Amino acid sequence: MLSINYQTENIIVDHLPIMVCWSTNYPQKSFSIKVYKGAELVSLIAREGNNTIVTLDAISLQSFTSYTIEVLTHGDNGENNVFKNSFTTSNLGHFSGRWVSGGHHFTNDIHYYRGKRNVVMRKTIYLDEDLLDAYISIVGLGFYKLYINGKEVTRGELNTDWTNYAKIIYYDTYNIKPFINQPKNEVIVELADGWFNPAPLKLFGKYNLRETLTIGEPQVIADIYMKFADREMIIGSDADWQYCEGAYTFNNIYLGERLDMKLFRGDNTTDLLMPDWKNVVLSNGPEGRLVSSFIPKINHTLSLGAEHIHVVDEETFIIDFGCHRHRIYRFIHYRV
Questions:
Q1: pTM of this prediction?
Q2: What's the domain of life for this entry (predicted)?
Q3: Contact 120, 244 (CB under 8 A)
């Protein structure tokens, strides 16, 4: 198996250097690495030695282009192996879109604990021609989930990657062609506070996160790339996007969340019953450099069903999941 930037599938690479890794079951004597853009050979490296981790930094990347890396290894006793994998570039960190938000601001830190509903954004796209390819590059600060036509696109939890947003911001890129329909498509981004809009509590009794982190209101920047038979199109986040209030009435990375289940249908918290859509507000966003993410995501691995539901009164329930998990013992759900 050949890994590219420590990934083996759905690989997006938007900046150099590129880390290529493989392993053999015999002593390696030499190797060669070929990089193809389509059928065109754009890079060739041949070396002696047993290195199985190599950095590529002399390739000229083009946006929205597919590349293939092929590694041929040779052993002391005539052994040979061929490893091959592919990656795709997106916008190389150059966004056409703007940072957009719902325009919520706290005038006083104490207002944070009173809670507010989270922000959900949408963009409606109409298509009347056959689509050959489609990708979205996106950042949602603090956390986000992405849906297209009611289906979740994001594969991880607690996106976006936490960094010093004043220095670097990691964006994600997804192949969205399988989610696109004709003629109408609805792109939905559900936002949460995450690390970008933390509570004014003191970590370790000393550090007020709102004073030590780069903070702001939840916001999005995105580019949607679409390729057709005779043209390409990029739809960036702009003033034409819309937002409404979501189903979460409070959310915080340390203090948990409150979800009003009367506000949405089924299991999709963005399928809101009475959304009041308004135009988004353009924002300056944090100052960090936009770089494609290569960090492994936090994944949902287990769902627990309720063992018993204790009815406290007509509005309050205690749900017992019947087991102890690390940092999860019992959920108390308030239906408000």
A1: 0.86
A2: Bacteria
A3: yes
